[in-house]
Target: Methionine aminopeptidase
Amino acid sequence: MRKKRGKIVITLKSTREIDAMDESGSLLASIHEAVRDFIKPGVTGAQIDQFFQDRIEAAGAIPEQIGFEGYEYATCVSVNDEICHGFPDDKPLKNGDLIKVDTVVNLHGAMSDSCWSYVVGESTPEIDHLMDVTKKALYKGIEQAQVGNRIGDIGHAIQTYVEGEGLSVVREFIGHGIGPTMHEAPSVPHYGEAGKGLRLKEGMVITIEPMVNTGTWKAKMDDNGWTARTEDGGLSCQYEHSLAITKEGPRILTKQKGE
Model:
């Protein structure tokens, strides 16, 4: 989500609503698990997009991104230096491409949002390091998603870890609240000061989705008005989970097998 300003209205979810979002998230997680074996050199972003759309609709759910502010696709497929909102196209993916696949599922009104990163074919040490740091940064942020903590605690944990590994955190695109619509308050930056910002309350459902770059954190926009890419052409990686703030700690709603 791009940073926005304005009146903050936060929807607190009931246990029943969170359970429904967990079911939606389980569906989304299962598609991310299934697409791993589908992604290989020669496959196109458009084929990956169709893979997701077919499975979402087969489960009786809605690919919520289609039609959002005029967006035409079920997913965003962002390649290499594309940070986010890449259009799925017919260009064959190459060995060594780093792709990020992001989508939102609406299952009977319950929303879930998750992005996952994949290497096409063989990886490199640079990509391995970037992916490892980005995924660990996601979970360091999730660890801070506790009742009574503040939004800044999440961003601070992510930023300090990522920068300590010699990488950078994108500033312009951030996490957000989710449900009953795709993007809601609060905003969840992946940088910031510990102890600052909105206090987290039981019943909040948010996304944490750090976008981490090998070079500068600064972004530039493509002419299509959607796709953001690194200003210096460096690689970008992203992992995202939807999660609920509960008294027992953060409940990941888009958890994949083995997490």
Observations:
- Residues 15-35 form the longest helix (21 residues).
- The chain has a mean pLDDT of 96.
- The longest strand covers residues 98-107.
- The helical segments are 15-35, 45-58, 125-143, 151-164.
